[in-house]
Amino acid sequence: MEIWINPACSKCRSAISLLDAEGAEYTVRRYLEDVPAPDEIRAVLGRLGLEPWDITRTQEPAAKELGLKDWPRNAGARERWITALAEHPKLIQRPIITADDGTAVVARTDEAVRDALSR
Fold first, then answer.
1. What is the CATH number of domain 2-117?
2. How confident is the model at residue 100, as a pLDDT?
């Protein structure tokens, strides 16, 4: 199991605390420092069953600078979104836990963390 975190994020710290309390074995990836490549983002999206716009933090200053709210949300624009996430990792929703069964969850709640643990 791997968890993508921003240490400054309270939701990330909460998820780590819950994983620790449950005695889970996991690897931490500080994705702002160890930025995922487009292929990794595609793989995580596949595991999540989501599209890139579903995991984009649209209120971040970079999102506003890029004008993301006006970008199409369709198959033709998918690669453009993935490129934006790779070039501006702060736009990636967090934390993301990749579970041992090959799935993943955006673990913003205790319930989502527990869901990842149960997989």
1. 3.40.30.10
2. 87
